[in-house]
Amino acid sequence: MKIQNRFRRKLLKSGLGVAVAPWLLHDASAQSGIRIRQEWQQFKLTTHYQSFRNAIASMRANTNPASRGSLQFWTNVHVNHCPHGAPYFISWHRGYLYYFEQQLRIASGDPDLNLPYWDYYSYATIPAEFTDPSPTNPLYVPRMSANVYHALNLLPFAANVHNFQQGTSNAFEPKIEDVHNPVHDLIGGVMTTMQSPLDPIFYLHHGSVDRLTHAWALPDGKGIPLSAFPYSSTNSHPYWAGNNVYASDLSIERYRTLDPNWIGIDYANTNVPITLPPVPATLRTQTSRLAPSLDLAARQRPPFRSLPTARRRRISEFRRSLGGFSQVAFDEQSVSVRLRVDKTDAAEVGRVVAARRGGSEWETGTRIGKIKVVIDRASASELAAQGGFFYALYLNMPALSESSASEQSFIGTLGAFQIAAASHHGPAKLEYDVSDLLAQQKITDFSELSLSWIRIDGDKPPAGKAIQVAEARIDLAFEEKPTKAALLVKPENWYRRRE
Prior knowledge:
By secondary structure, the protein is of the alpha+beta class. The chain is 28% helix and 20% strand. It has helices at residues 3-13, 15-24, 40-43, 48-61, 71-81, 89-108, 172-187, 201-217, 281-284, 343-357, 403-407, 416-423, 435-441, and strands at 35-37, 243-247, 250-253, 265-267, 299-300, 309-310, 313-316, 319-330, 335-340, 363-364, 367-380, 389-395, 400-401, 410-414, 429-433, 448-457, 467-480. Strand 10 and strand 11 (367-380) form a beta hairpin.
């Protein structure tokens, strides 16, 4: 019996299998092996292209949000359950695409339809089939930008990125989010909101993120925590325990999302990008008004500006602010600000950084020290909420930085999508762990730190104040040490092996 058949039989015997068995009946072609997802430019030349259009048209026309045949159902799943800037961002979305793909087959009547992906590292402009505003085109929705070139960088694929999940140093998951997020920001429209699955390009974007994750992990899984197939508490990392939830009657065991092969999926191209794509023609003619790309090539630090300061204070028992700035308005200007740090605080920052440089953590009791840049209570203006821009954030940016120096000062990004993701369950508060950055910078005097943000625009950026932040600050946080998992030896070829 083939592995795929044994895998499906186990699934059908499980509680999950009972919930999704009707879906699997429409997945007959997968019994013979792994399904291959194609890049859009190849996919659109196949007979499945029309199936995809028909499926999206049907799901957009279905206005019943309780129906899995409705695009609104899948949008509500995203609103209610998706993690962003949190553990399981990759795992959760991998399962989400898996179930959505099966609904595409049901809606189209094509049992061999696989979800395509958009390789924006090869061409950074949204495929023309999605930008045709014809009323008969089910792939079109209004957007702010057709290209995402300025969102792209190669940091997730750097040689030192070995760990996988949020909360670990030099980890892939948070770094790929710093590509994922500004893609949402620049495209704009509904893509800057938690309702982003209403835009059909959403699914090709997440297909790209999933493919890039798999390409990065090959051939040996890198630092992805080990799991047996199926998960066992005796020979698997606890990271993979439990389920990813999509609805009250729809979930997937997390371990199954470790490798796309484990859910019967692979990609036509499994190479990581080593260069950025060609600059789109529209950008070549508009460079006079567009901000620099996020390719981290040589760039100039923005001028320093004086802003109202926020006082140094204790935030909670295990966190205190080292100081910052209040009522910060982010507009079309790129800005740098200086933060002077109390002598005692600077010494503690030094202890955190020294421990990181030595390959460990600064521990106090059961907690470890971390340095966080915090964007607290952020909101986007009504116009800016439509996207078309974002800000690249830097810590201690050199006056004129070459690529390597930019990489060692790049914190992450801030835009309308990040604010929407952080605020759909409460006030928007974004945190960026900069402990590794400070360790890489090799500085020893922490009595003065600087923050810089560079405005990066798409085709139709908003004018005026785009984002208002109640407080931008730097915190010293003491977080609980993660429970140390038992040392598990990874068998040879474990990443692609399911039995």
